[in-house]
Backbone:
């Protein structure tokens, strides 16, 4: 049976949702055994190793500009995960999942508000 692109796309979204959703539960369980910083350090280290293996050939293309931009974006991502995992200590997984999922709706509006060009007032 050959799957078409649409079916593969839907399957990919389903798998992504399962992995993403289960991450909240596993983070809540991990907080019983590890600190927030250690959980994030393990998570980022595992991701680093996986991406390193998958993209080994592209390492030659990395320069100082890429490293600086990567460090900047990585720092923002780290801060977001740190705050999110810290918040999980004070609320339930389901509430945190809901608040995180709201990003999908809010981010386009925030981008629109920030990037909209103000139109000059026309004189009558």
Residues:
């Amino acid at each position: 049976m050959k799957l078409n692109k649409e079916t593969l796309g839907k399957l990919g979204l389903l798998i992504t949702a399962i992995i993403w959703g289960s991450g909240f539960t596993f983070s809540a369980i991990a907080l019983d055994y590890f600190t927030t910083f250690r959980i994030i350090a393990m998570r980022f280290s595992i991701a680093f190793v996986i991406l390193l293996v998958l993209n080994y050939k592209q390492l030659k293309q990395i320069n100082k500009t890429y490293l600086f931009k990567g460090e900047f974006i990585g720092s923002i991502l780290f801060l977001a995960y740190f705050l999110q995992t810290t918040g999980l200590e004070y609320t339930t997984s389901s509430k945190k999942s809901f608040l995180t999922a709201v990003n999908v709706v809010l981010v386009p509006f925030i981008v629109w508000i920030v990037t909209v060009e103000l139109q000059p007032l026309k004189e009558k």
About this structure: The radius of gyration is 20 Å. Residues 37-109 form one domain.
